[in-house]
Amino acid sequence: MRHVTMLALAGGLMLAGCHQAPKTDAQGFVIDPGFEQKLQQQLLDAKPGDVVTIPAGKYALTRSLSVTASGVTIKGAGMDKTVLSFAKQNSGAEGLLVTGDDFTLQDIALEDTKGDALKINGTKNAVMRRVRAEWTGGPSTNNGAYGLYPVQVENVLIEDSVVKGASDAGIYVGQSSNIIVRNNRAEGNVAGIEIENSTGADVYGNTTTGNTGGILVFNMPDLPVPGSKTRVYRNKIVANNHANFGAKGSAVSSVPAGSGVVINANDDVEIFDNEIADNKTANVIISSYFSTGFDTQRKRTAAYDPYPQNIYVANNRFSGGGNDPTDQFKPLMALGGGKLPDVVWDGFVDPKVADARICVQNGDARLLNVDGPHQFKGPAIVAADCAPATRLPEIALPAEMTKAK
Amino acid sequence: MTRFLAFLFGLLLVAACSRAPDVVTFHAEDNPENLADWGLFTISDGRITPHAGMVTYELATPLFSDYAQKWRTVFVPKGASATYDPVNAFAFPVGTIVTKTFYYTVPTSAAEPGTSAEVVKMTPATYQTGVGGLDLAHVRLIETRLLVRRAKGWVALPYVWNADQTEATLQRAGAAVPLTFIDGSKRTDFVYTVPNANQCAGCHVTDHRTRAFEPIGLKARHLNRTFPGPGGEINQLRRLAALHYLTGLPDAGVPQDAAWQDAAAPLDARARAYLDINCAHCHSATGPARVSGLWLDRQNADPRALGVCKPPVAAGKGAGDRAFDIVPGDAHGSILPFRMASTDPGAMMPETGRSLTHAEGVALIDRWIDTLKGECRLAGTAELAMR
Question: Is A19 within the bounds of a domain?
Answer without folding.
Answer: no
